[in-house]
# Entry
Amino acid sequence: MRITYNQDLTHLNTFAVKASCDKFIQIEDEDEIRPLLETDELNSAHYILGGGSNVLFTQHFHGAIVQLCTKGIHKFNEDTDFIWLDVAAGEHWDDFVNYCVKNKYYGVENLSGIPGFVGSCPVQNIGAYSAEVKDVIDSVFGYRISSKQPFTLANADCQFGYRSSIFKTTWKGDVLITRVRFKLSKKEKLTVTYKGLIEEMESSGLPLSLENVAKAVVAVRNNKLPDIREIGCAGSFFKNPIVKEEVRNKLLSEFPNLVSYPAGDGMCKLAAGQLIELSGMKGVRESSIGVYPKQALVIVNYGGATGEEIQRFYRKVQEAVERTTGIRLEPEVNIL
# Structure
């Protein structure tokens, strides 16, 4: 375990905003967690940081920031059709995806190229290109901070929803996820239903395979999203809103090309990126901050912007969308 004080967080968040915290705790061995919980280190303000790809720091964090850097991918079980893998929280998500593709384990290839750590994936229920991580998670392991006790949650108990889970709602801020168990198919099982992914597969002329789907996903992402090594961002900044069908129908009368998807129980999911585009904010730039020209869901830091400035800008985007459509977008990113 490494503890530093007044830690600079600039290189620990993909927005690349300058920030700091009172105390920064890096855990490199799962055995270090219980002794940490027996102290009073996490009894006050704290935040569990993954790869820093889904957070916007707007000020100095008065408290402790904890980051699990544990590593390891281990086979838990295997049968004719499936393999169960236990993956440490500190593994980079894309490294795990590449491991699965290399070993021909199906289920996470559509999530190629997503930054962050494995331990964060169930919190957000990460998803892309018609796939969500909840569909391959078997169980989640960790510790409750309040009780100082370990927990194991089966998939059904994680309360997974659209970009949500129990770890983001009732258990928010009270868990240290140590590892995630995945159930992956050993038999070919591919999902190629997203329009952009289908078009990429067709234009590449490559045959349908696990490796080629993963390559196509990365190609689509690279074409639409900035390289976080060059331009600061946190990926999709807003959630796609879910509204009643009558709200969608009313919007359709004004915007005939409105994109929507069934969400069950008389609800529809709208495309937040399209709503931002309809509001006229796509590509808008103010000094060092802007809406990415190739993907309206992405707010970018072109260099030197502060977290407070990005916060003020994203609120302008919210207001523009609300004025145009009557819908207020919710940030997908954690704002601190």
